[in-house]
Specification:
The chain is α+β, with helices and mostly antiparallel strands. It has three domains: 50 residues, no CATH class; 76 residues, no CATH class; 43 residues, no CATH class. Helices cover 28% and strands 23% of the residues. It is built from six helices and nine strands; from the N terminus they run αββββαβαβααβββα. A three-stranded antiparallel β-sheet has the order 7-8-9, with no helix packed on it. A two-stranded antiparallel ribbon has the order 1-2. It has a two-stranded antiparallel ribbon with strand order 3-4. Strand 7 and strand 8 form a beta hairpin. The longest helix has 15 residues. The chain is extended, with a radius of gyration of 22 Å.
Length: 179
């Protein structure tokens, strides 16, 4: 027990401290997180230790930059904006679809008091004709207001069953910190 379990327990506790709210870390660079990178000629995703660099620009000038260990831009926007000192100079927060999430929209509006110009993930897909005519798209289904149900093009009826909500890890951490 002393030679096997106790050293492993100490190692697991040290690793848990390094992990914090991440899901991985590199043994050689514990601040780096494993991220899927597209760097080979076939554009295959490779899991490698890396950092997520964020840059704020205006008129081709770099105004602010920071490096984050989290692999997704969705969870990087709010911490990045917290440390942006010149945010008062701007009315809009402009970002690509990688930053589009309900948590980010709400934070930009409520916390930073700015207007988000961030398209949601399926915005580009929804603009094409194929998507607009797709029978699987709920916007192409018939809604029956009186009885509150949808009918798809095949005649299948879809009735409301329940409300549900999902809390991602970033939002969960914020909730836990505020309690």
């Amino acid at each position: 027990m002393k030679e096997d379990f106790l050293p492993r327990k100490v190692k697991y506790e040290r690793d848990r401290e390094i992990f914090k709210d991440r899901n991985s870390f590199s043994k050689t660079d514990t601040v780096a997180t494993f991220m899927r990178l597209k760097e080979d000629h076939m554009q295959n995703g490779q899991l490698k230790p890396a950092y997520n660099l964020q840059i704020a620009t205006s008129g081709r000038f770099v105004l602010h930059y920071d490096i984050f260990p989290n692999p997704t831009d969705t969870r990087t926007l709010v911490p990045f904006l917290k440390f942006f000192s010149n945010l008062d100079l701007f009315k809009y927060i402009v970002a690509d679809t990688g930053y589009g999430s309900e948590t980010n929209y709400q934070a930009v509006i409520d916390k930073f008091e700015k207007i988000p110009l961030i398209p949601y993930g399926t915005y580009q897909k929804e603009q094409n004709r194929k998507y607009k005519r797709d029978p699987q798209n709920i916007n192409n289904w018939t809604y029956h207001d009186k009885d509150d149900y949808y009918t798809d093009p095949d005649g299948v009826v879809f009735k409301f069953q329940r409300y549900s909500s999902r809390v991602d890890n970033m939002r969960l951490n914020e909730i836990l910190k505020s309690t």
